[in-house]
Amino acid sequence: MHLLYQIFVDPFVQMGTAPDLLAQTLWEGLVSGVLYALIALGFVLIFKASGVFNFAQGIMVVFAALTLVGLYQAMTRLGVVNPTIGAYLALAGTVVVMFLLAVGVERLVLRPLVNQPDIVLFMATFGLTYFLIGFGEYVFGGDPQVMIADQLHLPRGRIDVHVFGGVVQMQKIDITAAVIASVLVAALAVFFQKTRIGRALRAVADSHRAALSVGISLETIWVIVWFAAGIVALATGIMWGARSDVSFALEIIALKALPVLILGGLTSIPGAIVGGLIIGLSEKIGELYWGPLLGSGIESWLAYVIALVFLLFRPQGLFGERIIERV
Amino acid sequence: MLYREVGQFKTSYTSDQAIFPILQDRLGIVAIVIAAYLIGLTGGDFLLNAVLIPFLIFSLAAIGLNLLTGYTGLLSLGTGAFMGVGAYACYKLTTYFPNVNILLWVVVSGFFASIVGALFGLPSLRIKGFYLAVATLAAQFFLEWCFIRIPWLFNYNESGAIEVPQREIFGIIVTGPRASAQTRYLVVLTIVAALTWLASNLVHGRIGRMWMAVRDMDIAAELMGIRLLPTKLLAFAVSSYVCGVAGALLVFLWYGGAESTVFDINQSFQILFMVIIGGLGSIIGSYFGAAVIYMMPIVLRAVPGWFGLPLQPATVEHLTFMVVGALIIVFLIAEPHGLARLWQIAKQKLRVWPFPY
Amino acid sequence: MRAPGGPEIAVGDVLLSVENVSLSFGGVKAISGVSFDIRKGEIRAIIGPNGAGKTSMLNVINGFYHPQQGRITFKGKTRPHMQPYEAARGGIARTFQNVALFRGMTVLDNIMAGRSLKMHTNIFWQLLRFGPALREEVAHRVRVEEIIDFLRIQDIRRTPVGRLPYGLQKRVELGRALAMEPDLLLLDEPMAGMNLEEKEDMSRFILDVNDHYGTTIALIEHDMGVVMDLSDRVVVLDYGIKIADGTPDEIKRDPAVIDAYLGVAH
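Output (structure tokens, whole complex):
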């Protein structure tokens, strides 16, 4: 009886008595949701256009962020004194690196594996993940780095919003992240729906062979979409890095994008966003109000369990299309 | 010349259905087993402790995962956690019943992993491929959390870790800090060899064929009367059993103590990579894969040193990641059936040698 | 040749009846209100233009799709929602339009897998591969070898099926279905993509199966010559509706069938 009370009544009483804490938690949930959504977005891009479930997307986020910081440090060492110029040069350099990565992945991983079963491509991205971790740590060192947020002139500080007789603190960087995420999503939606390349991308996702037969070049398409995913990864990496350190420890958090995808459906951009927000919110709320019951730390698995339950009832996700099996 | 099957006529289906129909293969296996035991009696502590014991244990874990992923086609990223269940179960059992033979508990602890594995295998009826992989991640992170947050599992130790107590069998110390490397090696070898033999029997019979049928074409298997859920759950249960025993061996006969981090997601990946490189759907490949992945850092550390170019430990670690990652991709592209397939090709060539065909 | 538990059905009696079956996917009707029956011992052809719902019909019969309406009675038992494994257990076997063999397994293992339902030793004997398990394995191997002899594929028994040419794969698939010793064998375009010689071989096997084992066969095929020669009775579907049902001779003369295949002359 007491347990039932603790599960079903007490958390809501707490929410009611301290609405400002609830609001703060909701905001934090939304923010981490936006970051999950951004990683998931990279997954969806690649999945939509190549049918590859890119496990390495989370690592690409860290890799992009590390490259940015690493290049900036190299600039400073080379004598670029002005931090702003250095930072933006490093940013441009990182974009180039992400492009090279896209070309490299296409040449060395995807092209030799065309028409292989999905699961083989999936496992190949495990290999890519490990390679990028090793390579990144070899080049940039294994120590956590500080994101060059100031040099990039990202907004700092916080806004205090007074609600419910309390204060909700909002970091400006988080608001920026949300804005950037919305812009990215809008741009991608337009790209997919309205442009010729966007339509070609969707055709490739349906069938590699069919796309080839109508004269769409798989190579180009794949490079484009991996590059686009790389840019999304870079944006995510900057936002994330500005909130905490940049290191491969983020890998575990990046894996959270997987349940987000399951929730949203693998092919849906709006799904990635909604899924990200749901996971972000339920994690923070769950941890704060129900966590103490179980001994805290439930953040580490709650997202996966939500996804698991979801899989049992709606395997295609919120926005995914139902697949009819044929014989 | 020595590897010929000329003159070995099979006169019954019994001999043709044998797992090693060729005499030389059977002799080879016997020779390897005898050699393995002889090494145990004569080998040095470093060889046994740092090389052979972990190699055997990881091979066993790889066999476990291979039953699930290689034979039944169900990708799991929760291997580490299932190994953990075995280890923690064994720890609880031996602390509650200290007088019972520890080897019995090692073997029994696998059943706990088996139950947990089957439980997390339930979603496999409706989902497959990467969806299932994500579902197994749920197992990985949830169980890892349990290993940290449920102090009952590690008997409320201050350190939050399992400390393996000393246990004896017939007066010989088998576990704990005072157990000799030789004893532990011989115990591990016996258990690993026995489970390998059982697993090999299983995959060569009806159950193995059902698993492979589900892997290759689940719809056709279903229309042939193979029920998918029980078949997949059995694969999860057997696979997790083997992994669980491997986990118990890992802690009790190698590490001598362990925290939850031993069973984290990197362990899961490590085992998966052994399976991919060794060969999906091959028992012997699991041994090859374990050898490559486990030995890689040891070799990377040692070999440059011989040429006067010693590497930093951190560099070795980074290089290992890169080489393993690259190897995965190379194998998936060039030889999806892994080292096991290369081994098979080599044997085939030997059979017809000196002619190319 | 009989699955256990079913009532005795004499040759010529109705083995399976399909009554008023309708099936749709979302808004698309694949089959609407189709009824026909299959009698024990006959070769029954299901024909029709592309997209007529033939394969969907087979999928309904062996429980892979569940029709929204209508019922299926097999060996006198009506089941509203038969599962595929229940159909298999009841004695329905099947080959597929696009070969659905277990590509990673050898020919022998594929056909042995067809006998999974008939093998019963438990996992503990299986683990030991000794005593009952080994005896069972060998006993079933003997039956499988009979099928291998019957289909004349002795020399490829150790070959992984993925490496075989298409025509042989179709033959192995027939072998795998035969290993189930079915009462009703559903063949989905067994001769698609074969040359004349292969078609002749396959026709011979189908007739032999029907003769030798007394297996009832339902067959989808596009080659009209083959259909007319092999089958005892033919049912014609068009856009999911049954438009004709009768002996090959009746079908040949049926104006509705001619219209469906050639288009109506206006």
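Strands of chain C lie at 14-25, 28-39, 43-47, 69-74, 77-78, 92-94, 184-188, 216-220, 233-238, 241-246.
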